[in-house]
Amino acid sequence: MSQYTARAHTNIALLKYWGKTDTNLIIPTTTSISLTLNEFYTDTTVWFDEQLTADDITLNNVSLQGRGYEKVTRFMDLVRDRANQHQFVHVHSINHVPTAAGLASSASAFAALAGAASAAAGLSLEPADLSRLARRGSGSASRSIFGGFAQWDRGHDDQTSVAHALTETVDWPIQLLTLIVNDQPKKIDSRGGMQNARANSPFYQQWVDMANAQVPAMQAAINNHDLVALGTLAEANALQMHAQNMVANPPFTYLTDVSWLIIETVKALRATGIPVYATMDAGPNVKLISQPADTEKIMVALRKVLPEIQVTVATPGPGIQIVQGDRI
Ligand code: DP6
């Protein structure tokens, strides 16, 4: 049986996915738009083995147990059914993303798994089909099949809920500064958090309507290479998403004092004419959409309030790569 390795990069949503209409198929309530990042990725190697009596799954060379193991096994069952291949499998993943810290490690993880597992099972899937498959593991993974800017159309069923590339090659200056506020695993995962918001926020339907209505403006900002329009909309969308959590009953939030301090610092930087915008996912980390020429000025301002802050610079990254044989 052939061994395949896939490398998929994570992505940051500029317009967020925050809720499902179908939790089994993972059909979202909103269309989302993302930027794939070069810095953070997962390498996953898969091979079927008739000698195995159970799936062998490792993450960063440690055997995976519990919920994580079940998620991967259930995902592998989808691939096995589709390929009519019923052997157990080795899945070895190395994550170059701080796991569960609001950096959507599940996006690169399930995109890489979809790529390597489908190839190892002998399925030869087009990018759109790979995106549909990755979506079943984790919604945001549907977008990580593609490089650059990608859009996941919410759709209404397995076929129509799929991502596509908007611009795979990004040839204008946009970057993401990732500020690590807290790299400990978050307490409420995104799956639970979005379910809470959908079930318990009185404004949830307004979020859905508003976020879906933002799609054309985000597409235009991308087409026009308009960092100001893109950043303004991305920051508004992120705050609107987090607002759903804060007004839920019971309320919850991923954001900490440090997150808010960064958001305020970003606002002050903008008041001095620097185009920099904050976006946050299911964790306290804040990501800053900005242009490379301003990195130094942004860092100086951040270090004034948070001298110890860790920063990674990420630029637009490529789509999934699959190779046969050894690991990438
Ligand atoms: C806040 O894709 O991790 O990062 O589909 O339940 O696995 P599941 O959720 P996941 O949610 C990501 C939520 C987000 C926004 C986004 O990436 O669009």
UniProtKB/TrEMBL annotation:
Keywords: ATP-binding, Lipid biosynthesis, Lipid metabolism, Lyase, Nucleotide-binding. Its EC number is 4.1.1.33. It comes from the Bacteria. GO terms for cellular component: cytosol. Transmembrane segments: none annotated. Signal peptide: none annotated. It is an enzyme of class 4 (lyase). GO terms for molecular function: ATP binding; diphosphomevalonate decarboxylase activity. SUPFAM superfamilies: GHMP Kinase, C-terminal domain, Ribosomal protein S5 domain 2-like. Residues 177-309 form the Mvd1 C-terminal domain. Pfam families: MDD_C (PF18376), MVD-like_N (PF22700). Residues 8-163 form the Diphosphomevalonate decarboxylase-like N-terminal domain. GO terms for biological process: isopentenyl diphosphate biosynthetic process, mevalonate pathway. Belongs to the diphosphomevalonate decarboxylase family. PANTHER family: DIPHOSPHOMEVALONATE DECARBOXYLASE (PTHR10977). This is diphosphomevalonate decarboxylase.
